[in-house]
Amino acid sequence: MTPVLAVRGAEKRFGAVVGLDGVDLEVNAGEVLALLGDNGAGKSTLIKCLSGALALDRGMIEMDGRRVSIHTPADARELGIETVYQDLALFDNLRPADNFYAGREAAGPRWLPRSIRVLKRHEMTVTTRQTLARLQVNLDDHGAVGLLSGGQRQGVAVARAAAFASRVVILDEPTAALGVRESRRVLDLILRLREEGKALIVVSHAMDHVMEVADRAVVMRRGRKVGELVPSAETHAEIVSLIVGGGG
Amino acid sequence: MAEATEMLDEREARPAAPDPRYRWLQLSLWTLRAGPALILAILVLVVSLTTPVFFTSRNIGNVFSQTAVIALLGLGQLLVIVSRGIDLSVGSTVALSGVVGAIVYLHVHSTILVVLAILGTGLAVGLANGLVFVLGRVPHPFIVTLASLSIVRGLALWAANGTLISGMPNGVDVLGGGSIGWLPYSFFVVAGLAVLAVIGTTYLVWGRWLYAVGGNPDAARRAGIPVGRVLVSVYVLSGLAAGIGGLITAGLIDAGSPTAGDLAELDSIAAVIIGGAAFAGGRGNVGNALVGAFTIGVIRNALNLHNVNAFYQLMAIGVVVLLAVEGDVIRGYVEKRVRLARAMRQDA
Lengths: 248, 348
Hints:
Chain A has helices spanning 43-51, 73-78, 96-101, 121-134, 150-164, 180-195, 207-213, 236-244; strands spanning 5-14, 17-27, 32-36, 58-63, 66-68, 81-84, 107-108, 118-119, 168-172, 199-203, 216-221, 224-229. A 6-stranded mixed beta sheet of chain A has the order 6-9-10-3-11-12, sandwiched between helices. In chain A, strands 2-1-4-5 form a 4-stranded antiparallel beta sheet, with helices on one face. Chain A has a single domain (5-91, 150-244), classed as P-loop containing nucleotide triphosphate hydrolases (Rossmann fold). By secondary structure, chain A is an alpha/beta fold. In chain A, a hairpin with a 2-residue loop joins strand 11 (216-221) and strand 12 (224-229). The two termini of chain A are 28 Å apart. By secondary structure, chain B is an all-alpha fold. Chain B has one domain: ABC transporter involved in vitamin B12 uptake, BtuC (Orthogonal Bundle), CATH 1.10.3470. In chain B, strand 2 (179-180) and strand 3 form a beta hairpin. In chain B, helix 3 packs across helix 12 and helix 12 crosses helix 13 (286-305). Chain B is globular. The model of chain B is unreliable at 1-16 (pLDDT under 50). At the A-B interface, helix 2, strand 8, helix 5 and helix 6 of A face helix 1, helix 9, helix 10, helix 11 and helix 14 of B.
C-alpha cells in the first residue's frame, strides 16, 4: 500500500544544531501515527517541515508516492495537510465559523479582488455547524471562541483541521493542558477522524493516550529516528526506554 | 479506569440543571457589552432633565456638528485599534490636509482639486505610517505615529508659515458649516462613512482579516492572511478619515489652520475606548465607536451649557475614559468566569 505521506532522508540544520538527521517516516490512510520523543528530539521540527512552517535542507516529502514541495503553510494546505498547533492558533475574538474559514473565507463574486469580496456568512456558519455536529463537538452556542472551555476550543481547532484536511491531520500535543473528560473527547475525535480515513500524526507526551489511539509509534531522539513500534502494554517499557535513550 | 469513564458517561447523559449563577454571569456580560450605549442613553437622559435647552433641535445640531470630526477620526482610529495599533498622527493630519487644501485654493479655484488635495494628503500620511510600520518592521506603531504626529504638525506649521490661510471653496464651506434644517451636512458625512465602515468590517473578507489580525497576528500569518497588507490598509484608511476630518474642519472655519486638530488624536482614541474596543486589539465596532464619540460630544455640550470651565471638561472626559477601561477589565474577568462556568456545566 502506498503511504499517503512519506518523508525520506529528512535533514534540517539550524547553524551548528542538527534539527533532523536522515529521518524516514510513513503514514497511511486511516492510521494514527504517534511521534514520540523527549524535548529537543526533533518532533516539532519535523511537523513544522510537514506543515510548511520550515523547509527541509535535504530529503524529500512524498504524497501518494509522488514527490511534493512544501515551502509555506499554504503549500501544505493545498496538498490536504492541516496542522493543529499546540497553541491551537485560534482567534479568541471570533466565532467558530470565522475561525474555521480564517484565510480561506467563502466569499464572492470571484472577479473582485479577494479582500473586498462579500462574505458568504450563512454558508460558512452552516458548514461549520455541520462539521462540528459530524465530529460530535458540542458547543453551548456560537459565540466567540474565547468564551469556550479548553476542551471545546481544542475541539474547534481539531474540527477545523479535519474540515479542510483531505489527506493528513497533524496534531501537536492535542491533550496537553486538558482535564480527563476533555482529553477523552479529543481522543474520541481523533478516532473518528481515523474512521473517516484520514492519516493522522500525533505528537504527544501522554503515553496513555498514545497507547490508546496510535497504530504505530515512531520514536525520535536528537533529530534521528531511533525506533518504530506498535504501541501496546508489552512495548510500553521499550518505547519509554527509546525515548530516554536507554534502548537506542 | 474503564469504570471511571463509565461513571463520567452516565453523568454526561444527565441534562445540566439550570444554574442561576451562570445566567447572572451571562446577564453581566450582556450589560457590560451594552455598557457604552447604556452610558450614553443615561447621560442624554440626565442632561435632558437637568438642561431644558439640551434637547432643542438647534442644540442637537450643534452636538452633531461639534462631534463630527471626533467621530470621523474615531472611525479611522477604531480600525487601527482593532488591528492592535494606534494612530497618534490623526490630529496633525487634520491640520496638514486643511493647510494643503488652502494652499491649493490660493493657486487654483477648483473645488474638486482642493477636495482631492485635502483627502490625498490624509491618504499619503496614512500610507507613510503604514509602510514605515510594516516595511520598517517597527515593533509597535506608537513610535511611528508619534514621530509622524510631530513631523506632520511641523509640516503644517512650515507650509502655513505658522498662520491661518483663509479661504476655501464654497462647496467645502457648505460641507463643513452648512446644514439641512438643523442637521449639519457633516452629520451625513459621518453617517455615510459609518455605513461604509460597517460594510467593510462586517461583510467583506477584509473585515474578517482585520479582526483576525487584531485577535491573533501569529495565527493570522499561519492561516495565510496577508497581515502586512491589512495593517497598511488600516493606516491608509485612518489617514483618509483624518483627511475627511480636515475637509470638514477647513469648511467650518473657511481656512486651513496649522493648529487645527490639536489633541484630536486623544479624543479619537478616547471615543474608541469609551466605545468598548479592546486596546489589546481584536474587539470593537463602528456603532460603539460612534457612541464613544457622541458621549464625549454630549459631555462637552452639557458642561458648556452649564458654563463649566473647559478644564473640568478635560477632567470629566478623562474620568469617563478611566471608567471605560475599568469596564473592559471587569468584562475580561466576567468572560473568564463565563468560560469556567461553561466548562463546569459541561462536566455537570
